[in-house]
Specification:
alpha/beta, 6 strands, Ribosomal Protein L13p, Chain: A, 4-stranded parallel β-sheet
C-alpha cells in the first residue's frame, strides 16, 4: 500500500492570493463580458477554487462606455428600480443609462451573475468600473487580462 496522503486542499481567506486584473470592455458584448468578469470575481479560473470562500481576483474594467449590446437592446432594454414609495417604479432605457452613467451598465450585469448572498456582496466589492481608459489603481500594479 502506498503511504502517500492525497488530501483536497480547501482555500481560506488566509491562503487566498488575490491579483489585480484590468479588463478592457471596448467592443465587447455586455452579457459575455459580464459572465467572464463574474467568473473571475468568484475565482473559478483558479485551481484552488473553493465555493464558500472569496478566492477571486480584483477586477478593474475600463472603457465601459464602449461596451456593445446586440439587436435592438439599446432601445428595448430597461433598468427598473423602485423608490419604495407607492407608485414609485422608475425605469431607464439602456441608451439613456449609457449617456448618464455608463459604468452602471456593466456593474448591473455583473452583479446579476454573482451569488445572491453575503459572499456575493463581498465579491461585488472587488469590482471597479470606469467609463474611460484611465483608472486610479496604478499602485496595485494590475495586469492586463485578455478575454
Amino acid at each position: 500500500m502506498d503511504s502517500r496522503s492525497y488530501k483536497t486542499l480547501s482555500a481560506n481567506k488566509n491562503t487566498v492570493e488575490k491579483q489585480w486584473l484590468v479588463i478592457d470592455a471596448e467592443a465587447q458584448i455586455l452579457g459575455r463580458l459580464a459572465s467572464q468578469i463574474a467568473s473571475i470575481l468568484r475565482g473559478k479560473h483558479k485551481p484552488s477554487f473553493t465555493p464558500h470562500v472569496d478566492c477571486g481576483d480584483n477586477v478593474i474594467v475600463i472603457n465601459a462606455d464602449k461596451v456593445r449590446l446586440t439587436g435592438g437592446k439599446w432601445q428595448q432594454k430597461e433598468y427598473i428600480r423602485h423608490t419604495t414609495y407607492p407608485g414609485g417604479q422608475r425605469s431607464v432605457r439602456a441608451d439613456k443609462m449609457l449617456s448618464t452613467h455608463p459604468e452602471r451598465i456593466v456593474e448591473f450585469a455583473v452583479k446579476g451573475m454573482l451569488p445572491k448572498n453575503k459572499l456575493g456582496a463581498q465579491m461585488y466589492r472587488n469590482l471597479r468600473v470606469y467609463a474611460g481608459a484611465e483608472h486610479p489603481h496604478e499602485a496595485q500594479e494590475p495586469t492586463l487580462f485578455e478575454l
